[in-house]
Amino acid sequence: MKNIRLFLTDVDGTMTDGGMYYTAAGDVMKRFNARDGMGLQILQKSGIKTGIITSENTELVTKRAEKLGVDFLVQGKRDGGKLSAVIEICDQLGIAIDEVAYIGDDVNCIELLKAVGLRACPADAVASVKAIPAIHTMSLKGGEGCVREFSDMILEGGDRL
């Protein structure tokens, strides 16, 4: 198994199907997959820190992160902000960026995906993400359990990595 000490995930298009659902009152809703949440909790029980790194900044994601008990939540990071946030987390934990696993699906994830030690994307990620060297493309799409699929691969000792 790779020496992964921190597992991070994007939200829209990774933990969700990328859809934004609006009520008549203007409330935004997102559909999360419970299996992804369980995958993060299993990683934590195995001693791996977990977190969410997203370009959006919503109360909805805050509530999801609180429910899951992730160790880190960073919202509103664009234009290189995701990578700089992860570097700060690594410094805080005293780990190297090659001890980080990250799963993301779109162009705002590319810089971070290229920097981490273990990278993955959902089956329906954009082509430029799928083209990143050494990226693992999951068989499942965003919102359909791809985060759990990636976490299971890590926990299985890298047999499928």
What do you see in this structure?
With 161 residues, this protein is α/β, with parallel strands linked by helices. 34% of the residues lie in helices and 16% in strands. The chain is built from six helices and eight strands. The strands form two sheets. It has a six-stranded parallel sheet, sandwiched between helices. Strands 2-3 form a two-stranded antiparallel ribbon. α1 packs parallel to α6. 39% of the residues are buried.
Main β-sheet, in a few words? Answer: 6 strands, parallel
Structural class: alpha/beta
Share of β-strand residues? 15-25%
Counting DSSP H or I runs of 4 or more residues, the number of helices is 6
Shape: globular
Mean pLDDT: 93
Radius of gyration: 14 Å
Q: Which oligomeric form is depicted?
A: single chain
Uncertain spans: none
End-to-end CA span: 8 Å
Q: What level of helicity do the residues show?
A: 25-40%
Task: Please describe the structure with a list of short key phrases separated by commas or semicolons.
single chain; 161 residues; alpha/beta; six-stranded parallel sheet; two-stranded antiparallel ribbon; 6 helices; globular
Describe the structure in brief:
The chain has 161 residues and is of the alpha/beta class. Helices cover 34% and strands 16% of the residues.
Write the layout of secondary structure elements.
Elements: E1 6-9, E2 21-22, E3 28-29, H1 34-45, E4 49-53, H2 59-68, E5 72-74, H3 81-93, E6 100-103, H4 110-115, E7 118-121, H5 127-130, E8 136-137, H6 146-155
